[in-house]
Design a protein that fits this description.
Structural class: alpha/beta
Shape: globular
Distance between the termini: 62 Å
Strand order of the largest sheet: 5-4-3-8-11-13-14
Number of helices: 7
Radius of gyration: 18 Å
Strand content: 15-25%
Helix content: 25-40%
C-alpha cells in the first residue's frame, strides 16, 4: 500500500540507504566500506585503544560480570583489567579467552558457537542462545561506527546480532569507540544511542559529542596517565 511504502522509505532514509524526492526516492550514493581485516585492526589506533581500555576499566566494579564482544578495542580493554580480581568475563572472542584463561585472576567463559574465518570468535544461533542464559552487569561492546542519532552499527550481521543480544542481557551498556568511529555508520544496527549508558572514546574526539541519556568519557592519553 501507499502507506506501507511511505513508512519503508522513511526507515530507509533514516538508515541512509536512500533519499526521498518528489514522487519517489533515489539512492543516497553513500558508500559503506567493509571493515579492515582483524589482523590489520590490531595495530591501527593502538594508543587510542589502550587509553580507552584504561578508562573503561576504571568503570568496572569488583564482583562485576561482563559480556564482552569480539574486537580489537575490547581486546585492549581486557588487557587493562587482566590483573583485576573478582571479575567474571563472558565472551565470544577466542583471543580474549586465550588471554585471560592462563592468568587465573579472572573467571572467563567462552561462548559456544561456530568459529568465524575472519574474526577469531564464535557466532550463530548457539552463541545467541548461550548469551540468553546469563544476566551481566555490563555489556562491553566495540562497534564499527557510532552515529549520534542512529547509534551503534556493525558491518556484519552475525557480529551485530551477538552485540545486540549481549546488551539485551545486561544491566548497563559500555560502548568503546575511538574518535575515528564517531559519526560513522555501517550496514547493520546494534542499538540506538539512548540504549548506551557509557560511551568511552579518546582525547581526540569532539568534546561536544553527547548521548541522549548516557555519559561520554574522554580517555586521557597514556603518556600523561599517572597511577
Amino acid at each position: 500500500s501507499r502507506e506501507t511504502i511511505r513508512r519503508d522509505f522513511l526507515d530507509l532514509e533514516e538508515c541512509g540507504t536512500l533519499k526521498r524526492v518528489h514522487g519517489g526516492a533515489v539512492l543516497s550514493g553513500r558508500q559503506i566500506a567493509p571493515e579492515p581485516a582483524f589482523s590489520d585492526r590490531l595495530t591501527a589506533n593502538a594508543d587510542a585503544k589502550r587509553d580507552i581500555g584504561k578508562e573503561a576499566a576504571a568503570h568496572i566494579q569488583p564482583g562485576s560480570t561482563l559480556f564482552i564482544d569480539a574486537g580489537t578495542t575490547t581486546l585492549a580493554f581486557v588487557r587493562e583489567i587482566l590483573f583485576h580480581r573478582d571479575v567474571r568475563i563472558i565472551t565470544n572472542s577466542i583471543e580474549i579467552a586465550k588471554l585471560v584463561a592462563p592468568t587465573g585472576n579472572l573467571e572467563v567463559l567462552l561462548l559456544g558457537g561456530k568459529p568465524h574465518a575472519e574474526v577469531p570468535a564464535t557466532y550463530g544461533e548457539l552463541t545467541l542462545s548461550e548469551v540468553d542464559r546469563f544476566l551481566a552487569d555490563f555489556a562491553v561492546i566495540s562497534p564499527v561506527g557510532f552515529h549520534p542519532t542512529r547509534g551503534a552499527t556493525d558491518y556484519e550481521l552475525h557480529e551485530a546480532e551477538v552485540a545486540r543480544r549481549m546488551i539485551r542481557c545486561s544491566k548497563s551498556c559500555i560502548m568503546l569507540c575511538h574518535s575515528d568511529k564517531l559519526t560513522i555508520e555501517s550496514r547493520v544496527a546494534i542499538c540506538r544511542p539512548e540504549e548506551v549508558d557509557h560511551l568511552i572514546t579518546d582525547s581526540k574526539a569532539d568534546r561536544g559529542f553527547s548521548l541522549p541519556r548516557g555519559e561520554v568519557h574522554f580517555a586521557r592519553p597514556h603518556d600523561t596517565d599517572v597511577r
